[in-house]
Design goal:
Shape: globular
Mean pLDDT: 84
Number of helices: 8
Radius of gyration: 17 Å
Helix content: 25-40%
Order of helices and strands: HEEHEHEHEHEHEHH
CATH topology: Glycerol-3-phosphate (1)-acyltransferase
Largest sheet: 7 strands, mixed
Strand order of the largest sheet: 1-7-6-2-5-3-4
Structural class: alpha/beta
Distance between the termini: 34 Å
């Protein structure tokens, strides 16, 4: 059954309050730089595909649109999260209210993938094709299941690059480090029509996700800030 996405007035109000509080706290201790917001169109059927290095990533992308969508900043996003988080008391309830839904991290979850296909046609979705956070900030190969999802749902895919989040909130750290710098770059939507016109197969799915990861890698190289001292990005494929 398709997961119900909360749309009540009280849920929207709760989202509005919490995102502004978290946004204030993040910006109080972290310098945030955002580029390319104009590349993300309004409406549903949009997939924001980003690299993943930190727990901060899932907050940073919605926060980037506070000035553009000041009334309902998070209501336009849904996102998958590994199912283990939903079993943690309080945390599971919190992320569910933030419009996350459970999925198995290894990607072998056909029911959840079909649910995502339906959701992406009526929502704007945030997704990390690598499937898990990187330990060192380097890009990992994209999961073939993400390529299958994109080919099946045929959304408008916006490649997105995140910088510095792995230093502000490292993977094994309990809390973020103050006074860091982060950057978000939304690239131009990808033209994947040549894949959408092909029959679905494992090879096509891999080619789709490889192209998405290549676009993210290009953004990571072309828009790398001068303060980023991490090693140059290697190919993720």
């Amino acid at each position: 059954m398709l997961m119900a996405i909360r749309r009540t007035f009280w849920h929207k109000l709760w989202l509005l309050i919490t995102i502004f509080i978290i946004n204030g706290l993040v910006r109080l201790f972290t310098r945030v730089e955002v580029h390319g917001r104009e590349n993300v169109p309004f409406g549903s059927g949009v997939l924001i595909a980003a690299n993943h290095c930190s727990a901060l990533d899932v907050l940073l992308i919605p926060m980037a649109f506070l000035t553009r969508w000041p009334l309902l900043p998070l209501d336009l996003f849904v996102s998958p999260a590994k199912e283990e988080w939903f079993r943690v008391p309080i945390v599971g309830t919190f992320i569910r209210w933030w419009r996350a839904f459970p999925i198995r991290q290894n990607g072998r979850d056909p029911a959840s993938l079909l649910r995502m296909v339906k959701l992406i046609k009526t929502e704007k979705m945030m997704l990390f094709p690598e499937g898990a956070r990187s330990y060192d900030g380097q890009l990992q190969p994209g999961m073939r299941s993400v390529g299958w999802l994109i080919h099946k749902a045929q959304p408008l895919v916006v490649p997105t690059a995140l910088f510095g989040t792995e230093k502000v909130w490292p993977r094994r750290a309990l809390l973020p480090r103050p006074f860091g710098r982060v950057k978000v770059v939304f690239g131009k939507p990808l033209n994947l029509d040549r894949y959408y016109n092909q029959s679905q197969s494992g090879e096509v799915a891999q080619e789709v996700v490889d192209e998405v990861m290549a676009a993210i890698a290009h953004l990571k190289t072309a828009h790398r800030p001068v303060w980023d001292t991490s090693p140059p990005i290697r190919s993720a494929t």
